[in-house]
Amino acid sequence: MRHKLFVLILITMAITTTLKARELDVSKVKIYEHVLSDVMEIIDTAELKIKLNNAEHQFQQNPSEINKVRLGIVYHETALNLAFFSKTTYKGYAKKSFEQLTELFNSPSTTPELLPFIASYRASALALVSAETKKLQLLGEAFSLFEDAVEKYARFSYLPEFLRGSVAENLPWFFFAKRRSANQDFQAIINKQTKDPEYADWKIISFTYWAWANQHQGKKYREQSLTYLEKAISLDPNYKAGRRKAEELKILFMK
Question: What is the pTM of this model?
């Protein structure tokens, strides 16, 4: 009897999660995307430190749902851009991000339109925990979370595929099975952007064009790669996204 009850609970949870994904209001997802855009993909470390202090202060003053999401994302960016260059100061931020976002993900009261952000950054944060702790099992779990996020939310947001592709492209060569998803993910974003120019913002598309070219450095793809690099550069006049890396790769190609 207990076994049947447990199975019933699992089925109910799965149905509830699926319904949440189906009921998303795309216009609301876009609003949250705009609200959160300033804390996503921060490459300026000085700016990131300011964002970290501000996000923590805002959450202390007002521990609202959106401020909790912002803080979880900022913790992720801190782990990605600061923790690996510091022996002590910024260690543990990947775990902080994962725990913060997991609490939101598991809460039945979480706004459904925030789930694409929460699920995607939660998976990426776990991948960062794996890198920091050198526990490969966690990397496998992170990609399972990515798979779930892509299946449920990629049609509403670029984040599941963008973050999975970003993690995959930085893995060592012997993770070739996981690295393949980088090609698929960045191409999928480009395809969706071609059909709907509002699918992703300029910052993400700039990074995506560079990432695609970086994944296709062979002569067979040279012309297309150079076209994408030019687009990555033109979209980012102030060096806030993929321009610097795109210029470096373009010089390498021209040689």
Answer: 0.87
